[in-house]
Design goal:
Blueprint: E1 5-10, E2 27-33, E3 39-43, H1 46-62, E4 67-71, H2 81-86, H3 91-99, H4 112-122, H5 178-196, E5 200-202, E6 216-220, H6 242-255, H7 259-264, H8 275-282, E7 316-317, H9 319-329, E8 336-340, E9 353-354, E10 364-365, E11 369-372, E12 381-391, E13 406-409, E14 421-424, E15 429-432, E16 438-444, E17 453-454, E18 465-467, H10 475-483, E19 488-492, E20 496-502, E21 506-507, E22 518-519, H11 522-532, E23 536-543, H12 547-560, E24 563-567, H13 577-584, E25 589-593, E26 595-596, E27 601-606, E28 609-614, H14 618-636, E29 647-650, E30 655-657, E31 662-670, E32 673-676, H15 686-690, E33 693-697, E34 702-704, E35 709-714
Parallel strand pairs: 1-4, 4-6, 5-6, 7-25, 12-13, 20-23, 20-24, 21-22, 24-28, 26-31
Antiparallel strand pairs: 1-2, 2-3, 8-19, 9-18, 10-17, 11-13, 11-14, 12-16, 15-16, 25-27, 27-28, 29-35, 30-34, 31-32, 31-33, 33-35
Length: 720
Amino acid sequence: MSFDQIIAVDWSSSSTPSSVKPVANAIYVGSKVRGQPVDVQYFRTRLSAMDAIYAMLDRAQDARARVLVGFDFGFGYPRGFAQALTGQSSVLGVWDWLAERIKDGPDNRNNRFEVADQINRALDSIGPFWGCPKGAETDALRQRGSERGPLQFPERRTVEALTSSAQPMWKLYTPGSVGGQSLVGLPMLAKLRARYGSGITVWPFETGFAKPATNIVLAEIYPSLFDATHRTGDTGMIFDVLDARQVRAVCEAFENAELDALFGAGFDQTTDPNDAQIAWEEGWILGVRKQKIDGGRLTPPPLVNDCFALPQGVSWTPVDEALDQLKKRVRAVTAIETIAVKDAVGRYLASDVFAQRANPPHANCAVDGYGISADAILDGLNELPVVMGRAAAGAPFSGAVPKGHAIRILTGAVVPSGVDTVVLEEDCTVETDEDGQPIRIAFHGGLRKGANTRKTGEDVMKGDVMLRTARKITPAGAAFLTAGGISNIDVRAPLRVAVISTGDELVEAGSIAKAGQIFDANRPMLLSMIASWGFEPVDMGIIRDDPNALQAALDEAANSADVILTSGGASAGDEDHVSKLLQSSGSLAWWRIAVKPGRPLALAMWSGVPVFGLPGNPVAAFVCTTIFAYPAMTCLAGGDFAVPQAVTVPAGFSKRKKEGRREFLRARLRGGVAEVFASEGSGRIGGLSWAEGLVELPDEAQEITPGAPVRYIPFSSLGL
């Protein structure tokens, strides 16, 4: 049994009506009635959106239709909050509490910051809520999370650790702040419950992890879990906005979902008996699973089968347009896992990382010297007595330094009370007692206040975002995270990339090549490129020109990898079995890219795994992989779409280029001038070994003479 209608709502906490034209961070309501296309509407205010939702639900009730209604904000708060605020652990009690206090007018004006301030004061703390416009902060509600006091509650709900980029419920301001959306959204849901009474169920608070029995089911959703790529047939301005495409994707994903699996949330897979209680207190996001059967990793839904389809009528595609299409179509497909920071170098972050501690945690000294108060410094010669004791790293001075006195202080020491400036040891004349302890110093004035000290949190403040989702962890990044008190992070599992070479003419190096046979150079090249990018290469070997053998290899690759690269056999000849098999899957798309070297790039899905069908000529395979497959695979791995960084340098060659195709020449820099390989032939592998980068020539016709500026892409910019 499934739902007759899916309603998905992308919410906003804006205090003013949105633009007349559909814009991001506004309100979008998607509705999918069984057997009909998704209808997406844009609303400028919350009250107008709720009126439309009420009308849909009234019609559904009259027809006795089963409806799932999803809102994209948090339904509950971290453990302990409901009890502390209302005296009971019921999340729905918090909804009613907020409904009595939140004012939300027809012009979108609301008092969420005032209510957040009231909650913070009721909890006798600075926080947990934070974030507000400049000038709206109070002594209990601050603009920055790092300004809060010690938290009584966890920073995040349990489910938020399993979702990419989910922001904490305590954050109220700036686009995407789910805390602000919840404060104005939950009162609306309380009124919705009151309107439909026993005919509506809130999952999982009233149902546990079981299939709800009422005709109307209310659940929290997270649209970013679903593929919202721009598909053929999208028309109208509304689908230019990601939010609109996302609510459509949610409706399509939930329409035919198996209810037991959907609402069970995978908790039958876990051994932690507290999980159900945690979700009952905090809420859960529909579709997020606690564990995966094969090892406890959260796995996103696969790419859709037609994700590479080009719009009707498209033939030759310029390089920039092809890259833009790929960027829109692909997203992370690898599982999410939690690992130690020290083991995470080379991995991509699956969620934003927030500092657990300021760095430095206290103002500290940057040199060895003497700490003083800048207010006591004269412009000329200064003589100050030195207090007994000293401040050292790990051994702070426990007292306060009187004004007009100095203290011996060493590098890394916490700056004592009464000190705001440090005089470098080499700039002081020191008088000592008979035991060699300093008792007086002399130095020249002119020091600025704060000299030779580091401020608290000048690197990062507690609660600040340290690194964003999709960031690749480097050794420096690992050090930064550790300094912020982070020990474990959510990262993407390594992208597994299978490589298949095809053709009866290919043999392994080291074997005997018969007449008409060549050694397979593409596979070693591609496997080593994959390893250089930090992905996990899966070597599928050489597959002969046999449809059955190739199909078996594709099946095995799809079971072993997240992406498949094939080399050769992707044209339309008699023995081009790769293209024929991919065509049989119903997902093959020929991307006739206007690029040289290269030819149409075959893109397809095989058993849910994306396939890049590369040319057989080594140079063309190299260029297509670096320019098209590499940025796409980086995105599939959980990173940002990789854009190579180029430099403009003088040409050290002459060339007359025709209009119509982007060209990539094997090149290297010598004396700051770009040299290019003597031959442009796609089979000249020696040119790849000779080169250290590529010269990229634009689509337009061009006459290049020595000294003319050209765009040079070093291989290092391509991750090689």
